[in-house]
């Protein structure tokens, strides 16, 4: 049987892994399951990735970079201080807490990074990009506080059973931005 030319196979495997983690969690995936979902032979998994750890690292890197790209785009589009505060609110209220998929993926990555130092490079790079984007408009101290607010509200949104009041988020952003720092 002739080999199938498939130049996008590696990328497809990574994309399928991101979606599988969002649906099943890291504990629920395997090379066999990913290969089946990506419609590739199981041998392709070992051809493209040395092990599941390398594949997960690639998948979480792709996911975190896509979120960071969106984060940066929102803040780059802001031209005034008030627009920057609104961009932060939009990031929290529309981009981050509205997507169950992204909430799950974020927490799956955080769990891996808490347990395995190799994944902390992904979270560190993501945090650095987020803070750099925030520092376009805010002091480093305020950017750090806003970043902590974003992370905290993301966690609360993933776990809370009550509806979050968007006005609370806007007031928190205003309070942080009024502080010296």
From TrEMBL:
Q: Pfam families of this UniProt entry?
A: TetR_N (PF00440)
Q: Which residues form the HTH tetR-type domain?
A: 7-67
Q: Which domain of life is it from?
A: Bacteria
Annotated GO MF terms = DNA binding
What are the UniProt keywords, alphabetically? DNA-binding
InterPro entries recorded: Homeodomain-like_sf (IPR009057), HTH-type_Tx_Regulator (IPR050624), HTH_TetR (IPR001647), Tet_transcr_reg_TetR-rel_C_sf (IPR036271)
**DNA-binding region in chain numbering:** 30-49
The entry's protein name is Transcriptional regulator, TetR family
């Amino acid at each position: 049987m002739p080999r199938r030319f498939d130049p996008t196979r590696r990328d497809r495997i990574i994309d399928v892994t991101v979606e599988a983690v969002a649906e099943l969690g890291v504990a629920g995936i395997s090379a066999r399951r990913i290969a089946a979902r990506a419609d590739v032979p199981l041998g392709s998994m070992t051809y493209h990735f040395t092990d599941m750890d390398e594949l997960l690292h690639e998948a979480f890197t792709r996911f975190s970079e896509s979120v960071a790209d969106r984060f940066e785009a929102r803040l780059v589009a802001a031209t005034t201080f008030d627009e920057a505060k609104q961009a932060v609110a939009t990031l929290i209220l529309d981009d981050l807490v509205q997507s169950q998929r992204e909430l799950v993926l974020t927490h799956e990555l955080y769990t891996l990074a808490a347990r395995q130092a190799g994944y902390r490079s992904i979270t560190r790079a993501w945090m650095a990009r987020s803070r750099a984007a925030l520092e376009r408009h805010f002091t480093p101290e305020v950017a750090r506080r806003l970043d902590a607010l974003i992370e905290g509200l993301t966690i609360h949104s993933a776990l809370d059973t009550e509806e979050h009041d968007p006005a609370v988020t806007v007031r928190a952003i205003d309070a942080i931005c009024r502080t010296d720092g």
